[in-house]
Design a protein that fits this description.
11 helices; Hypothetical protein af1432; binds fe (ii) ion; single chain
Length: 197
């Protein structure tokens, strides 16, 4: 089984492993609530894989991307946090033979993008709100999502509203820290803003 293979190969610090298991739990929960077409197994595998390469040095990301023909931009080299999504997706496809839906969920889990597929949205959002996240922004977002989910008849709307808010938060943080903002994140924010109007 893919899940066991990935678990066996996963080499993460205790802190990141705890985070990853939190993402597994949140992804299964979100999939069940919003996208019953996603199997719990797929949600788990995507979550286990999402930060697989996060602790690799920059050279290793570049080596993986080169090996599997994945293009890397100068912005990504300057901000290697973005690279783990690409190298992780490359390994998901080439080493573990994961299905395209899971590969693309890993690929877009950091920046998000406009019009995310159900699994892309579930993984992206699970990464943001998993229970071990203690940043005030994450805690507030988690509470906001639960409140909207509880009170709204339209449960998809609750998720879309929370997604839009998550991009606002990310963009605000990046501005405050004088960090570059990925164009995909801006497109995602505009997309979910329009969707929730
Ligand atoms: Fe990540
Ligand atoms: Fe993560």
């Amino acid at each position: 089984m893919k899940k066991e293979m990935i678990l066996q190969d996963l080499r993460l610090s205790d802190k990141r492993m705890k985070h990853t298991l939190g993402v597994v739990k949140a992804a299964v929960m979100l999939a069940k609530r919003h996208s019953p077409e996603i199997t719990p197994e797929d949600a788990e595998v995507a979550a286990l894989m999402h930060d697989f390469t996060k602790e690799y040095p920059v050279e290793k990301h570049l080596e993986i991307c080169k090996t599997y023909g994945v293009e890397v931009t100068e912005e990504e080299i300057a901000s290697p946090k973005l690279l783990h999504a690409k190298s992780g997706a490359a390994l998901a496809k080439a080493v573990y033979g994961l299905k395209p839906e899971i590969v693309s969920a890993v690929r877009w889990h950091t920046t998000g993008k406009s019009g995310m597929s159900p699994l892309e949205a579930v993984l992206y959002f699970a990464d943001y709100i998993e229970e071990n996240r203690t940043f005030p922004g994450c805690v507030r977002l988690r509470n906001y999502y639960e409140k909207e989910y509880g009170k709204r008849k339209d449960k998809q709307k609750a998720l879309f509203l929370a997604l839009e808010r998550s991009f606002d938060l990310t963009i605000r943080d990046l501005l405050a820290e004088k960090k570059p903002i990925d164009a995909k994140t801006i497109e995602a924010r505009n997309y979910y803003l329009k969707l929730t109007k």
